[in-house]
Automatic annotation (TrEMBL), chains A, B:
Organism: Fredinandcohnia quinoae
PROSITE patterns tied to this protein: HTH_CROC1
Keyword hit for Transcription regulation: yes
Domain of life: Bacteria
Name of this chain's protein: Helix-turn-helix transcriptional regulator
Length: 76, 76
């Protein structure tokens, strides 16, 4: 999987899980303590998210970080 | 898990898996296409690794990214 695809797949997975919990980007940004624009960029696959924010995002989605990547790997 | 702990736990997990495969830092750096110093910093928990490098590191350890985090979560 090339770099662009990694970011895209991660973003799509975050979006899918967020929507499955009926949380808006604004609400989710508040939950994880990150800016809404940042969340939007992550979901659009334009951000190379750092480890600390990956863990924050997983926590905000109420899944383990491993589960977040399991979900992402299903799509590949 | 606070930010410092996330980096420390990730580094310890990478080191454990690398050593379980009997690969030196030099060899591992070569495999994943990253600098040896960077690998050393990751393992010492001083790097907030990006998503793309997390995936590269997992691939280099011949585990899925989800499995790498499963391993990390065992220690928490």
């Amino acid at each position: 999987m090339d770099d662009k695809n990694v970011k895209t797949q991660f973003g799509l997975t975050v979006r899918k899980l967020r929507l499955s919990k009926n949380i808006s980007q604004e609400k989710f940004a508040e939950i994880v303590g990150l800016h809404r624009t940042y969340i939007s960029e992550v979901e659009r696959g334009t951000r190379n998210v750092t480890l600390i924010n990956v863990v924050k995002i997983a926590k905000g989605l109420e899944v383990k970080t491993s589960e977040l990547f399991c979900e992402m790997e299903k799509e590949i």
